[in-house]
């Protein structure tokens, strides 16, 4: 279990990186399942392994219906289409997120309304949502940063009171829970990622979670090039035809076969990642007590999947200095998102006058992600911690 498919990438080796930020891995039966998929004679979408992935994800997350997609970006684009977004609409979301969250909204002609994040979890600040709602608001897209849940009770209550849809960007949160409920099962719709940097991987991949039954039939159509081909396969019609605008939002059976082997090991993978996170927390807590840095915050009603481990440094200079210090010793640690509202596209959407989001802007300048992957050896992790301590003791 958790076998390393090979040494560090040529890029890492050439750059002198010995401990990368992330490494893909083999969990168990990936290669044998790919062989089985080939022998079964169906490598296109929605074959044997895709169906098994759907069933396993529905059972483990509590999502009512799950459909594999080529990426989380594709799942978010489908969700935006299912929300019937258009040029007159606005969607509330955090600026501290990957571009796909916002681009899915903009592709439908709607306007993203960026709201600041919380100091603790770095998720959408639910106390700021109501002030951002206008007659044009159509949906809220909370992002579960680092696998830690947004405050979904409050977000869903606000959505109900204002007749809004909720789409969870759970790209980083497969297997995480909020008050006992699996993330991806709480909003009307949700999106997962199985990119090689995530907990459970297939290179590129994602899934759309559908928790409101009124979206299921249309999701199948949008996902399959805008046709009712799934109804045809089920024998519900004698032919399939073009029903509405869609795209090829399906995942190949080879990706599904690889992913199913990973999902079979969800529990053991999560346990290993939790061990890595616990080691970082235990051995860096002294620096937090000294006020040198801040460790991740997981509220008591949240169960995290230990997706990533980040530090918040006092200022940008300290963050950049530590990042450079680690790289000098062959350890790759990186900052995360450049806030979308400050990006060239975000500024354009705001008419050249982007909103000021002080917490988002501060976090983006101070956050540093540490190496985090299942095959991270104890000695390697000990070295990462030691080099961090060395930096503050200089």
Report a brief summary of the structure.
By secondary structure, the protein is α/β, with parallel strands linked by helices. The protein has 15 helices and 12 strands.
Rg: 21 Å
Average pLDDT confidence is 94
Instruction: Describe the largest sheet.
Output: 7 strands, mixed
Give the SSE string.
HHHEHEHEHEHEEEEEHHHHEEHHHEH
CATH superfamily of the largest domain: Type I PLP-dependent aspartate aminotransferase-like (Major domain)
Uncertain segments:
6-11
Q: How many helix segments? A: 15
What does it look like?
- The chain is of the alpha/beta class.
- The chain folds into two domains: 30-263, Aspartate Aminotransferase, domain 2 (3-Layer(aba) Sandwich); 266-393, Aspartate Aminotransferase, domain 1, CATH 3.90.1150.10.
- It has helices spanning 10-14, 30-40, 48-61, 72-82, 99-107, 129-132, 152-161, 216-223, 229-233, 253-263, 266-289, 316-328, 344-349, 358-366, 378-393, and strands at residues 65-69, 90-94, 111-115, 137-140, 165-169, 177-178, 181-182, 189-193, 206-210, 302-303, 310-312, 367-369.
- Strands 1-9-8-5-4-2-3 form a seven-stranded mixed sheet, with helices on both faces. A three-stranded antiparallel sheet has the order 7-6-10, with no helix packed on it.
- α2 (30-40) runs antiparallel to α10 (253-263), α3 (48-61) packs parallel to α10 and α4 crosses α8 (216-223).
- The protein is globular and about 75 Å long.
- The model is unreliable at 6-11 (pLDDT under 50).
């Amino acid at each position: 279990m958790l076998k390393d498919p090979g040494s560090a990438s040529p890029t890492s080796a050439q750059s002198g990186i010995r401990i990368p930020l992330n490494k893909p891995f083999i969990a168990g039966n990936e290669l044998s399942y790919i062989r089985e998929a080939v022998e079964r004679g169906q490598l296109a979408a929605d074959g044997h392994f895709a169906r098994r992935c759907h069933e396993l994800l529905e059972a483990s997350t509590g999502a009512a219906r799950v459909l594999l997609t080529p990426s989380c970006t594709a799942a978010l684009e489908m969700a935006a289409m299912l929300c019937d977004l258009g040029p007159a609409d606005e969607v509330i979301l955090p600026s501290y997120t990957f571009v796909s969250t916002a681009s899915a909204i903009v592709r439908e002609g709607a306007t993203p309304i960026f709201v600041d994040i919380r100091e603790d979890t770095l998720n959408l600040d639910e106390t700021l949502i109501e002030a951002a709602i206008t007659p044009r608001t159509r949906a809220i897209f909370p992002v579960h940063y680092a696998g830690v849940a947004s405050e979904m009770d409050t977000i869903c209550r606000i959505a109900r009171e204002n007749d809004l849809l909720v789409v969870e960007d759970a790209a980083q949160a497969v297997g995480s829970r909020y008050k006992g409920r699996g993330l991806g099962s709480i909003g009307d719709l949700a999106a997962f990622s199985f990119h090689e940097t995530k907990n459970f991987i297939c290179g590129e991949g994602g899934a759309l979670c559908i928790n409101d039954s009124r979206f299921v039939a249309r999701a199948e159509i949008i996902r399959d090039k805008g046709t009712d081909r799934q109804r045809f396969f089920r024998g519900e019609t004698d032919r399939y035809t073009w029903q509405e605008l869609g795209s090829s939002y399906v995942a190949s059976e080879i990706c599904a076969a690889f992913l199913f082997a990973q999902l079979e090991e969800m529990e053991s993978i999560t346990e290993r990642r939790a061990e890595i996170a616990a080691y970082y927390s235990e051995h860096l807590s002294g620096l937090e007590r000294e006020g040198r840095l801040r460790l991740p915050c997981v509220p008591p009603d949240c169960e995290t999947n230990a997706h990533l481990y980040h530090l918040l440094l006092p200022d940008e200079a300290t963050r950049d200095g530590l990042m450079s210090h680690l790289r000098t010793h062959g350890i790759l640690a990186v900052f995360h998102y450049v806030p979308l509202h400050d990006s060239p596209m975000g500024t354009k959407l705001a008419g050249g006058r982007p909103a000021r989001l002080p917490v988002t802007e501060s976090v983006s300048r101070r956050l540093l992600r540490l190496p985090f992957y299942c095959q991270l050896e104890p000695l390697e992790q000990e070295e990462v911690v030691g080099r961090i301590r060395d930096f503050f003791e200089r």
